[in-house]
């Protein structure tokens, strides 16, 4: 490979945590394999990113101070990002090409929420690769809509849906964008559908998943789409990837109020702690937070719970007092989730089933209690409970809230219940598959190597 001129990829992300993480990881991976990698993100997120071997450069979404929060609506934000982002991303690439000390940019890798980046690549006459940040199974649903096999909102008479390579899917197991007519005009759905409409126009289409995890789907979709699996895109140290000391993504948008959570975990017995986190975006109803609090308490397990700053005031005061007195739990505003999932004291992850969180738990062999909120999360929950069998899904009551009794039941099921042994065995098996996929010569590693080699050669 050393004999080829080095390729230069620009990787551009949507500025949310669940997008920055996999795209930054992909950039680090490509850099570790010899490509020059520049990571482009909005001005206000670029400042927060540090990643070895990757050059971080700002573009503009048109809201340079506060980003999304400054925009009057999702529609306006995405529209403005498209216009200003296309212009500033093009300018960035032209500027990079004026720097004769580094190879010219020959490929744009873009986040699937930025479908307009394809036109930037085309106008500059460079290669394009899109990275899909949902599971391949979820992506296949959108693809079926594009192909006219499925309509949205999904016709209730067709439920449970039977589609190639997928388990039968009930209404509450579908991505919320497809299950519910409220999202019919959603700007997010429009961006998602735009990317599937133009999938074939890309030189490469990658998804953050791995063959062993979604093999039935991969087989069923052969010939129907050009998607290749390159995941799990989690820091290398956790999955025996190419960068041995890589233990964090390198771009946390939120800060923790506590630096001692790992020391606290160190004092606890193996596999006893329930780790609870609902990702970066979900806003949990106050009633639901109360049920989680008392469900955790009555499970009698110790817990570490991430409650973002913006949600802290929803915590019941009496509960806070009692955990202080009993020392049975710790609440932090943010953490390095991977370090916690990798910690030997953690025995269960109560998660909202964001795709990154799900993949991270799978890659680290941690059994899960699924409490999906919206978007692709209900489908991820279905897979983890019924396909991979690495956890259980907490069922909502009639008022849409998961009760404390249900939470306690699910924790017990995963920790000590009838299914517990099977769940733990499956979780370890999945962790081994993930390591194998990204390890030297594994399914994902081979696809990434082929991509790198093609770019170094200047693929024809
Ligand atoms: N995360 C983190 N610390 C936390 C909570 C979450 O580092 O306290 C990371 C987590 O590791 C994951 C990302 O934030 O990579 C969340 O992405 P996901 O797709 O799971 O959920 P989203 O935030 O998009 O809903």
From TrEMBL:
Under Enzyme Commission nomenclature, its number is: 2.4.1.-
Database matches in SUPFAM superfamilies = UDP-Glycosyltransferase/glycogen phosphorylase (SSF53756)
Listed Pfam families: Glyco_transf_N (PF26168), UDPGT (PF00201)
Task: Report a single Gene Ontology molecular function.
Answer: glycosyltransferase activity
This protein's UniProt keywords: Glycosyltransferase, Transferase
Q: Residues in domain Glycosyltransferase N-terminal?
A: 9-47
| Listed CDD domains | GT1_Gtf-like
Q: Which domain of life is it from?
A: Eukaryota
Q: Does the keyword Transferase apply?
A: yes
The Swiss-Prot or TrEMBL record describes its family as follows: Belongs to the UDP-glycosyltransferase family.
Q: What is this protein called?
A: Glycosyltransferase
- Organism of provenance: Cinchona calisaya
